[in-house]
Specification:
A 7-stranded parallel beta sheet has the order 3-2-1-4-5-6-7, with helices on both faces. A two-stranded antiparallel ribbon has the order 8-9. Helix 5 runs parallel beside helix 6, helix 6 crosses helix 13 and helix 8 crosses helix 13. The chain is an alpha/beta fold and 369 residues long. The structure holds NADP nicotinamide-adenine-dinucleotide phosphate.
């Protein structure tokens, strides 16, 4: 009998044992993160960052807001990539008034709505046309529409998959010319321990086959796993000479607006557990560490050299960790890579074309380097 293909195996989902192990990771993180991360200072001390340009998506709330503020206060040029520019401008005003530095903060705002792939293309075109180097792209924006029914974007994709994985993947690829210009540079994906509790079926990334019952939990966790799998292949395919590192990060479980869709009664419970949950400043530490620690590019290069099956993953303790066993499956990761390129409207050779500075077409808008 022929052995099952990778996509057949992906359809079968996690075994009970893997599912239990996944959930024990999630529960351990929630219960013990404060103890495990007790060696870290809050805020995380940062070096002067005057030579860095960083794009931070979703920086009007929660973890992204903290990341943007702290990078800017350490001297970085920060671009807030947000769907609500008015909110971003008002935050900048507040930060400028509060800063102790004699220089004003170097922050720009650019509109980006991840629910529209056209908006992602427009954003990238606009940034690339400036011809400026980009040192750090932080894909932070994300949604977890807890308890809500399945929804689709105008592009036709399940909304968790689009906002948390497809749109950031497209953004990362289209910004490669600027990241190459800014090398050594980093792409950082704010991921989640929830990627441990699911699998991804590359033939059903939109959850429409009916083989799996959709819930917001399935949508969220699968989008985060798809992000790690896509990053594995990006990490493998980016030539060392490009100088671009890719890192996934676990922020820990934090009290932010991510629970805005919880039923009111559960939100009361959520507010009562600050003893175990991080605040946004604490949850920003692992991303800030991944964005600024000088050892990170060497660590990524070492993983490549060792042919490790996954990209770098930094946990909420600011230490390297292994993503889930499922996330380390190169066969499924390759299928997720191919499917993602197809869904965001890019060709299989787009990575090489973008790095070589050649014109690349995207179904969601012509893209010129
Ligand atoms: N909080 C946690 O416990 C936790 C745990 C693990 C991972 N994470 C991850 O951490 C990241 C940040 O989450 P958070 O907890 O800080 O949540 P949050 O407070 O809800 O912030 C999410 C940010 O994403 C933005 N955003 C949402 N949809 C967008 C879209 N279509 N286009 C552009 N921006 C959009 C939001 O913009 P608006 O302000 O305009 O709504 C907001 O700025 C997410 O990727 C999340 O999955 C969080």
């Amino acid at each position: 009998m022929a052995s099952p293909s990778a996509s057949d195996q992906a359809k079968q989902g996690l075994s009970w044992m893997e599912w239990l192990q996944g959930w024990s990771n999630v529960i351990y993180e929630v219960l013990f993160q404060k103890v495990e991360a007790r060696h870290l200072k809050t805020p995380l001390p940062l070096p002067p960052l005057n030579n860095l340009t960083c794009i931070v998506t979703g920086s009007t709330s929660g973890i992204g807001l903290e990341i943007a503020r702290q990078l800017a206060e350490s001297g970085a040029h920060v671009v807030m990539a947000v769907r609500n520019p008015t909110a971003a401008h008002s935050l900048i005003q507040t930060w400028q008034n509060q800063t102790s530095s004699k220089d004003s903060l170097n922050i720009d705002v650019m509109e980006l709505n991840l629910l529209s792939l056209e908006s992602v293309v427009r954003f990238s075109e606009k940034w690339n046309l400036l011809g400026k180097p980009l040192n750090v792209l932080i894909n932070n924006a994300g949604i977890f529409s807890i308890g809500e029914p399945q929804k689709f974007s105008n592009d036709g994709y399940e909304t968790h998959m689009q906002v948390n994985h497809l749109a950031p993947a497209l953004l990362s690829l289209l910004l490669l010319p600027s990241l190459k210009r800014g090398a050594p540079s980093r792409i950082i994906n704010v991921n989640s321990v929830m990627h441990f509790v699911c699998n991804v079926d590359p033939n059903d990334m939109n959850f429409v086959s009916g083989k799996r019952k959709f819930s917001s939990l399935v949508g969220y966790s699968s989008s985060k796993l798809a992000q790690v799998m896509f990053s594995n292949i990006l990490h493998k395919r980016l030539p060392s000479e490009s100088g671009i590192s890719i890192i996934c990060v676990g922020p820990g479980a934090a009290q932010t607006n991510v629970a805005r869709d919880l039923p009111k009664i559960l939100q009361v419970g959520y507010q009562l557990i600050p003893l175990i949950l991080f605040n946004a400043e604490e949850a920003s530490r692992s991303t800030l560490f991944a964005a600024t620690d000088p050892e990170i590019p060497k660590y990524c290069a070492q993983l490549k050299w060792d042919e490790w099956p996954a990209c770098a993953y930094i946990s909420y303790t600011c230490r390297p960790m292994n993503p889930s066993k499922e996330a380390q499956r190169m066969d499924i990761s390759s299928l997720v890579w191919e499917k993602t390129l197809d869904m965001v409207g890019l060709s299989g050779d787009c990575l090489e074309m973008l790095l070589e500075g050649k014109e690349t077409q995207c179904r969601y808008g012509a893209h010129l380097n």
